[in-house]
């Protein structure tokens, strides 16, 4: 099954995976406190505005560190609102609604998740027909296509490395790269899986 991009999130950690039929020549790199999706050196040029972006950021908020991740440029305003002290629900809802679904051939939804240092985890999506933001207490997945409403999902990873690998290896088609995040006693750790 092809579900496109997806996030998985629970109180202990989560992951974001890029799956792509159209733009497979991409990778995640770590730069300036963010994990960024961008083209590989051999990727054909594109003017598609939706394929390069910060996919994961860990920010300091008034109540401690929080991780924010998702499939596009909305990750930045979510992270910035969290830094300003917005509740995660509001940061997600306002940023998703402001940018709305992508105006591409598929009306691709925006998806996102947050995890607070206290384990509060939220997941959200904005589609052409809905805005959904909810708190989760077990691993939960939302994807751009097919699985486009949050659903409980078996996800075993207990470290950032394991989360990135598990997300990358899931049987959904056209895996490109994945980012993992895990809550530890010393804050959040992150990891990247770019495949071979
Ligand atoms: N975030 C991404 O990495 C991303 N990759 C592709 N898209 C959008 O989704 C469309 C379909 O891409 P694909 O056939 O690879 O699923 C693309 O034309 C592009 O507008 C993306 N936008 C949202 O998921």
Provide the domain count.
1
What fraction of residues sit in β-strands?
Answer: 35-45%
What's the number of extended β-strand segments? 13
The unique ligands bound to this protein are: the ligand NC(=O)c1ncn([C@@H]2O[C@H](COP(=O)(O)O)[C@@H](O)[C@H]2O)c1NC=O
Low-pLDDT stretches are: none
The fold-level CATH name is: Glutamine Phosphoribosylpyrophosphate, subunit 1, domain 1
> How would you classify the helix and strand content by structural class?
alpha+beta
Overall shape: globular
Report the CATH C-level class: Alpha Beta
What Rg is obtained from the alpha carbons, in whole angstroms? 15 Å
- What order do the SSEs take from the amino end to the carboxyl end, as H and E? EEEEEEHHEEEEEHEE
End-to-end separation in angstroms reads: 22 Å
What count of helical segments does DSSP give?
A: 3
Largest sheet: 7 strands, antiparallel
Strand order of the largest sheet: 3-4-5-6-7-8-9
Identify the CATH homologous superfamily: Inosine monophosphate cyclohydrolase-like
């Amino acid at each position: 099954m092809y579900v496109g991009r997806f996030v998985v999130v629970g109180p202990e950690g989560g992951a974001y995976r890029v799956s792509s039929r159209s733009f497979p020549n991409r990778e995640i790199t770590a730069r300036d406190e963010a994990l960024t999706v961008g083209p590989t050196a051999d990727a054909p040029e594109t003017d598609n505005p939706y394929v390069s972006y910060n996919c994961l950021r860990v920010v300091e908020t008034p109540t401690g560190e929080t991780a924010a991740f998702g499939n596009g440029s909305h990750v930045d305003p979510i992270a910035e609102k969290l830094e300003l002290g917005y509740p995660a629900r509001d940061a997600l809802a306002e940023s998703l609604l402001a940018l709305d679904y992508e105006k591409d051939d598929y009306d691709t939804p925006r998806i996102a998740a947050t995890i607070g240092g206290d384990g509060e985890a939220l997941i959200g999506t904005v589609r052409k027909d809905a805005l959904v933001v909810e708190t989760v207490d077990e691993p939960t997945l939302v994807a751009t296509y097919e699985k486009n409403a949050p659903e409980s999902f078996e996800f075993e990873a207990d470290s950032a490395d394991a989360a990135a690998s598990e997300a990358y290896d899931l049987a959904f088609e056209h895996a490109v790269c994945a980012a993992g995040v895990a809550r530890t006693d010393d804050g959040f750790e992150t990891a990247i899986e770019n495949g071979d």
